[in-house]
Design a protein that fits this description.
alpha+beta, ten-stranded mixed β-sheet, six-stranded antiparallel β-sheet, 34% helix, globular
């Protein structure tokens, strides 16, 4: 089977040579009468890899249901077989549209060849309801209007249609959810991609955009902010993608200012472009469903007010699962609560819960759309490098009464967080969460100090000394106040790598560690836990460092209480061939415990004053004037190194790697 990108491109070429395009991008075959409703809201996607098909459509009915995908993207349905679009990308989730847009007219349009039963249903948490049922003729263009808004919001849900072949084979050529009323505003959408030494990933993402005609029509600009090796446009795959994008691509090269600096540079470029009204932030390593961009543009066009859109994050390793649909921050303990976490999207019964429109504090910038009018009024991101920029910005908008809308069917596949074992990112998480708390949470000094003490002890008692050192450095740098964010972030990052050399991060082959570390039995009472904590802290302070072989421990058993008698463990993550190892060290424990509690005491003592400094400086740090001066003062990136055959990648190779897990 052809690659995803090639098949979409072929489909676009085939339709372009046999049909005509309406002003809004709706395609109808030559000789057919144009429909009365011409503003497409959401097209039905059929031609994705087989392993991803449960997200788009499913077939059932007879003992041997038969539904074949044709080269044109049409579906040929065997007699007695039903093809249903009660799927994640096939259904229309109406509540976000009812709540936030002026859409008051909706219809299903379908081009069907052969006698078939067409049904439209609404599904919500209260049940399933048949809205329309119609037998279509041998060859017809069908338009079924959908009833207006239900009387109560709990009646809103997802809309989907199904098609059952009554006689011989039936062919569904295309279908879309459309509206008669025009959008209230014109949308000029710019994609902003921030990258650092991921040329192959960027080439793949650009190739995906270039291969989809509807995504291209939705985009006015594509800004790639290159913060790694210079000379990105000189890569053959990037050059080819630039040609395919038809003049939309703008590559901006600058020093590494992290995700916050890269995305902000793209937003500044969009603010300077009169043709751009909205921007979508995309990580360079995502696998994008390109239909997300036309859906985003449609939503923005019909929006009654300026609202940001959050794209769902699907699990790249388990591509039929939703990893996160935005998140809520618990202000009591600053924990992140991802919404609809690890939902099996292949199960239609799980989808109605997505239709309820769960509110969130923020949505990750792997795919995040925002009107530029909000950027002008709320300011630009904080210059906090990475990890926490999206959190702070989302909470900032939320406290202004601007609520992010996580829109089902707008999604990317991304590497899941559960395969990442701690690294230098913990410094940024610690420092930047403290900054966000200073700006937006009303925490008392003793509460903040207690949270940091728990985090420090958690890492020290599990022998993660590098992580503990990062926490200490994060607290210390937060206490420096806003001046820390005016420094060149590269010097800060270099200091984190020096810490790694000091405390060491080791791994060992999974095949080399066969003996298991048996976890210490858990106490039965709270008093038992408190006594165990005291004993473990005393043991780590007094017991000499012991050079013993590592023993394997599953990640589910890895906790301070289960390591009471351990000295050296290899953490079995379930994903890695090289297991991270953690060795108990009396010297590291003593030094970091003293340094950590010294920093935490200063945090307790100085928190009110430092929080005030952050609040006073935040408007300046998020202003255009600050960012333009900040970018200018940072030195340019190094010269481009020669490109080797091993480093480079072609556009065709990028297309073939839509989703490794989907093959």
């Amino acid at each position: 089977m052809d690659s995803y990108g090639n098949r979409v491109a072929a489909c676009c070429i085939d339709r372009a040579t046999t049909g005509q395009l309406s002003s809004d991008g709706v395609m109808w075959m030559a000789g057919e009468q144009a429909p009365t409703r011409q503003y497409r809201i959401q097209r039905i996607i059929t031609d994705r890899p087989t392993a991803l098909r449960p997200l788009y459509w499913r077939a059932f009915g007879t003992r041997a249901p038969r539904a074949d995908l044709l080269e044109t993207g049409a579906i040929r349905i065997g007699k007695g077989t039903t093809v249903s679009f009660d799927t994640y990308f096939g259904a229309f989730f109406e509540q976000p549209w009812r709540l936030h847009t002026s859409l008051d007219d909706l219809a299903l349009q379908a081009s069907v060849e052969g006698p078939a039963l067409l049904q439209v249903r609404r599904v919500n948490t209260l049940g399933q309801h048949l809205l329309h049922e119609q037998v279509v003729a041998d060859e017809s263009e069908t338009e079924l209007p959908i009833a207006l808004e239900p009387e109560h919001h709990r009646q809103q849900g997802l809309l989907y249609f199904s098609l059952t072949a009554l006689g011989g084979p039936v062919v569904l050529h295309r279908a879309a959810w459309v509206a008669a009323s025009a959008p209230e505003r014109t949308v000029g959408l710019a994609a902003v991609i921030c990258t650092f030494n991921r040329e192959a990933d960027v080439a793949r993402l650009l190739a995906t955009l270039a291969s989809d005609g509807e995504a291209l029509r939705a985009l006015s600009r594509v800004y790639v902010i290159n913060q790694g090796r210079a000379g990105l446009m000189e890569r053959p795959a990037i050059e080819a993608a630039a040609t395919a994008l038809g003049g939309r691509l703008r590559i901006i090269e600058q020093a590494n200012l992290g995700g916050a600096g890269g995305f902000t540079r793209g937003l500044l470029a969009a603010l300077d472009d009169a043709a751009i009204t909205h921007a979508v932030l995309l990580d360079d390593d995502v696998r994008l469903e390109p239909e997300s961009l036309p859906r985003m543009a449609s939503f923005f066009g019909f929006s009654r007010a300026d609202v940001p859109l959050g794209g769902h994050m699907l699990d790249a390793l388990q591509p039929l699962r939703l990893f996160e649909a935005g998140a809520i921050v618990d202000s009591r303990n600053w924990s992140f609560q991802p919404q609809h976490h690890m939902v099996d999207l292949a199960d239609p019964a799980r989808l109605p819960h997505l239709a309820e429109g769960q509110a969130v504090h923020y949505s990750g910038w792997w795919c995040f759309g925002i009107p530029l009018s909000l950027v002008r009024s709320a300011g630009l991101p904080l210059p906090c490098f990475i990890r926490g920029d999206d959190l702070e910005y989302g909470i900032r908008l939320h406290q202004r009464g601007v609520y992010t809308v996580p829109l089902p069917g707008l999604a990317v596949w991304h590497e899941p967080f559960y395969i990442r074992v701690g690294s230098w990112q913990l410094y940024y998480e610690t420092r930047n969460v403290l900054i966000a708390a200073a700006l937006h949470f009303d925490s008392k000094p003793h509460e903040t100090a207690e949270r940091m003490a728990k985090q420090l002890l958690l890492h020290l008692l599990t022998f993660r000394y590098y992580s503990a050192a990062l926490i200490v450095r994060g607290i210390e740098d937060f206490l420096q106040g806003p001046t820390i964010l005016r420094r060149d972030p590269r010097s800060i990052h270099a200091g984190l790598l020096d810490l790694r050399e000091t405390y060491g991060v080791a791994t060992t082959s999974a095949r080399a560690v066969l003996d298991y570390e048996h976890p210490t039995p858990l106490p039965r009472t709270w008093a038992g836990y408190r006594l165990a904590l005291v004993k473990i802290m005393v043991r780590n302070w007094l017991a000499p460092t012991r050079d013993k072989p590592a023993k394997r421990m599953p990640v589910r058993d890895f906790a301070w209480i289960t390591l009471a008698r351990a000295n050296h463990v290899a953490l079995d993550t379930g994903w890695d061939l090289q297991l991270p190892t953690f060795r108990r060290s009396r010297e590291h424990y003593r030094a970091l415990l003293v340094a950590g509690f010294r920093a935490i005491f200063q945090l307790y003592r100085r928190a009110p004053a430092v929080n005030g400094e952050w609040r006073e400086e935040a408007p300046h740090l998020t202003s255009e004037a600050f960012w333009r001066a900040y970018i200018r003062q940072v030195s340019p990136p190094p010269a481009a190194p020669p490109v080797t055959a091993e480093e480079d990648v072609t556009v065709a190779e990028c297309d073939d790697r839509l989703l490794v897990a989907a093959k």
